[in-house]
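Troubleshooting log. The previous structure file for this entry was overwritten by mistake, so regenerating from the original sequence record. Sequence copied from the archived sheet and checked twice against the printout by T.R.
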Amino acid sequence: MYSLSPGYRVPAIQRGLSPTEVLLSKANAVAGAAVLASAMVHQPPAWAFGAVAGVAGLINVAPGRRSIARWATVGVRLWRERSTPTVAASAGSTRTWTLYPHHGTMQDPYTRASFHQAFARALTFTAGQARQAGIQVHVTHHATAGDYTAHTQTVSVHIPRGLVGYPDRVLGSIEAEFAALGVLAPVTPEPVPDVTDRAGGWAAFEDGSHAATARITSWPSETDGDLMPQLLLGKSDDRTTDRSLSVLYRPLPAAQSRRSARLQSAAAGAFTTDQVKKDSDEAVSGTTHGALVQGDGLVDVDAYLTVWGDSPEAVTDARWDVGLIADRHRIQLDWLTGQQQRAHVMTTPHGAATRKGAIL
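Regenerated output below.
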């Protein structure tokens, strides 16, 4: 099932509902309430109950990793798309920087914790620049493995058109906030390569490379400390593998964070019958309440992982290796069957402007 929670929980890697699905869910709930209310005056026809139940089933019943409606949408997209899709063409202002933390930041556990806290404060500051949610922060890490490993890390911020009156002014303020994290330098992202061939589980590009992208749907709260080296820098005995990792943050403003937490807590208490799960939700709700009191905000998170290869067979082998590492660290991957022609954009800086729900 798809979670309506805003992503503050750890793990905070969630698919979430697209705006269209949220609208359909609310409209279907209103229609169901109207049908039940009309039964007090006159018995409604049987097809009315069937229609409400059918729509609810299409949206919520999930055979596998997606609901029935999302599987149908993926099939239609696979049949319709014949060229590289423009999933990152949302109108608005976008700015990208390369970010390199200070030397030794990630090696020292105390410095790394301070870096994560500073980044969380930057996200909270970013959310406070607008009354409504919409500002997106996209972080990418690309590791090119060869005789030596080259790292490229970027931070992109996208402000949709019409969200704030002076987007350049807001982007300047956000840039100053992220500048405290390390060496920050403006950069213009390279164009996304055209897709020349595709299959359900991989895509081929004009430069001869092949890629397969997965959405990270579950991430444990604790690891052994070797997750990033294993995930991004893992090598086999006879080849090297390039990998890209990206995280898309959608921070919520303070008022919307409090409202979302309140509604989530009420829904958990009203519709949860399992007492153990209810106690677990209450514990999480208490932690969230304490964080909100301290001035933190809720963040909706999406994470993606791309593996690269010279051929479809190399991509398949790389997927197998990554699957073993994911099992080792209790990470769940959804390889986005039928969406590889657009999913690779999410691990490039261009993914900052992607609308939620573009990748199902």
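Residues 19-38 form the longest helix (20 residues). Archived copy saved in two places this time.
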